[in-house]
């Protein structure tokens, strides 16, 4: 089957090609790519051609709290990082006091010792996520933030690490909306699905 001349190539070339010549192959020549026309065996320089495409994301922040939905979000983030050859940062934002956020707000201004059980739980979760990334061949680091406000911890981690994407679970959506309203980078959420179905990214 005869090839039809390709007009888009002609408009991109630094020098014109003759009618009937179809530049259909790229040949490396030093630091410059050259187009090879099979019909005339000529190579034409393409100094303006971009040889590499920059990936959309290079460092991904994955917020995790040890829940099943957060594990789904971590798996999603690691899979995406592997496809993009990006690195990941796992963040566990923990409330360091027993009694939840109400007690945390009461002692926010005081120097209160971190509950060892809370710290151990967070460390076990981060170790599990670290193993997930290592098994996938993805570079990773972990961060543990003691903050009663997870959205604040996530935003601070983005600023500290230079991540260009946030991945997190969105059980009710309130936390994700607070992060989305204040962050300067894209947010990918993993939402709960119906029983028996996998979590859905959105």
UniProtKB/TrEMBL annotation:
CDD domains reported for this sequence: USP-like
Coiled coil: none
Gene3D superfamilies: HUPs
Pfam short name (any one): Usp
Stretches assigned to the UspA domain: 57-184
InterPro entries: Rossmann-like_a/b/a_fold (IPR014729), Universal_stress_UspA (IPR006015), UspA (IPR006016)
Family: Belongs to the universal stress protein A family.
Protein name per its UniProtKB record: Universal stress protein
């Amino acid at each position: 089957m005869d090839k039809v001349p390709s007009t888009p190539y002609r408009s991109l070339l630094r020098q014109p090609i003759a009618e009937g010549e179809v530049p259909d192959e790229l040949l490396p020549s030093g630091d410059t790519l050259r187009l090879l026309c099979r019909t005339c065996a000529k190579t034409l320089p393409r100094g303006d051609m971009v040889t590499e495409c920059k990936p959309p994301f290079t460092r991904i922040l994955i917020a995790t709290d040890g829940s099943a939905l957060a594990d789904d979000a971590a798996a999603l983030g690691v899979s995406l990082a592997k496809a993009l050859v990006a690195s990941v940062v796992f963040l566990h934002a923990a409330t360091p006091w027993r009694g939840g956020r109400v007690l945390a707000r009461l002692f926010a201004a005081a120097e209160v010792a971190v509950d060892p059980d809370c710290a151990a739980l967070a460390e076990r979760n981060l170790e599990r996520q670290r193993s997930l990334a290592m098994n996938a061949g993805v570079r990773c680091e972990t961060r543990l933030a003691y903050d009663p406000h997870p959205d604040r911890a996530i935003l601070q981690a983005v600023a500290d690490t230079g991540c260009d994407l946030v991945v997190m679970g969105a059980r009710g959506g309130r936390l994700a909306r607070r992060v989305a309203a204040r962050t300067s980078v894209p947010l990918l959420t993993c939402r709960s699905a119906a029983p028996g179905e996998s979590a859905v990214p959105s």
